[in-house]
C-alpha cells in the first residue's frame, strides 16, 4: 500500500563530524583532529579557560560527605 521510498538526503560522511563546543561549527572527530571535539586549538583553549574559571567559583552548597545524616541526639 503505502510504500515509502527512502530518500537518502544526507550521505554519511567517511569522517565523523561533531559540533565544536567552542564555536558550534562542524568539527572532524577523528585521530586527525588533535583538538577534538573542538575544531581548532583556539576553541580548545577558550573552553579550557572557561572550565578553569568555572572551577574557581563552584558553590559550596553540598554538605560535607563525612557529615552525619540527621541529628545524632535523636538516636537514643
Ligand atoms: Zn570551534
UniProtKB/TrEMBL annotation:
Zn(2+) binds at residues 20, 23, 39, 43. Pfam families: YacG. Keywords: Metal-binding, Zinc. The keyword Metal-binding applies. InterPro entries: DNA_gyrase_inhibitor_YacG, Znf_NHR/GATA. Interacts with GyrB. Inhibits all the catalytic activities of DNA gyrase by preventing its interaction with DNA. Acts by binding directly to the C-terminal domain of GyrB, which probably disrupts DNA binding by the gyrase. This is DNA gyrase inhibitor YacG.
